[in-house]
Design brief:
Keywords: Signal. This protein is an alpha+beta fold. The chain has one domain. The chain contains three helices and four strands. The protein has a four-stranded antiparallel β-sheet with strand order 1-2-3-4. A hairpin with a 2-residue loop joins strand 1 and strand 2. Helix 2 runs antiparallel to helix 3. The longest helix is centred in the middle third of the chain and has 82 residues. It is rod-shaped. The two termini are 39 Å apart.
């Protein structure tokens, strides 16, 4: 839809440019050119000009039109360049966000793994102390609280990972 509107607008602009008289300044005088006729101050001066002058005026007009076209193309290229830079920045931002999310997930996984290892190690130590009879009732209570806290932390870490 956007391209269709742009095409129609450009087509109309081109038609208006070629249908209407085009102005060109040549040797300090402003000429208007319609088809093959050259006007000066609204008067047809084509027969009064030499063939070389007519050619020079028409060439000057062609050069002017070519220059205007080149300027438009340059502006269009600059606009495309800006759009490309904007898209590149957006892609970079998206990439950084994705990398950050991956790092966050890896850290959460690492924390979970560390917690599980610590729980396993502490549970084994608790069981060994219990079997050896080296735990007082207060120590056993402390150990059980410590192990429960570790289990809670592991559950929290697992929930956090599931949400990611």
């Amino acid at each position: 839809m956007k391209h269709v509107k742009l095409f129609i607008t450009l087509s109309l602009l081109v038609m208006v440019t070629f249908v209407s008289a085009q102005k060109i300044e040549y040797q300090g005088k402003e000429y208007k050119i319609k088809k093959d006729l050259i006007f000066l101050d609204g008067v047809d001066v084509t027969p009064n000009l030499t063939v070389s002058e007519q050619t020079a005026i028409k060439d000057a007009l062609k050069n002017k039109v070519a220059l205007e076209k080149a300027e438009k193309e340059q502006k269009k290229a600059e606009k495309k360049q800006k759009e490309a830079e904007k898209a590149e920045k957006k892609a970079e931002k998206k990439q950084k966000k994705a990398e950050k999310a991956v790092k966050k997930r890896e850290k959460a996984e690492s924390n979970l793994e560390k917690g599980q290892k610590k729980l396993k190690k502490d549970t084994a130590k608790y069981e060994k102390l219990k079997v050896d009879g080296k735990l007082s009732p207060q120590d056993e209570e402390k150990w059980l609280k410590k192990l429960d806290k570790q289990k809670e932390n592991i559950e929290k870490a697992q929930k956090k990972l599931r949400k990611m």
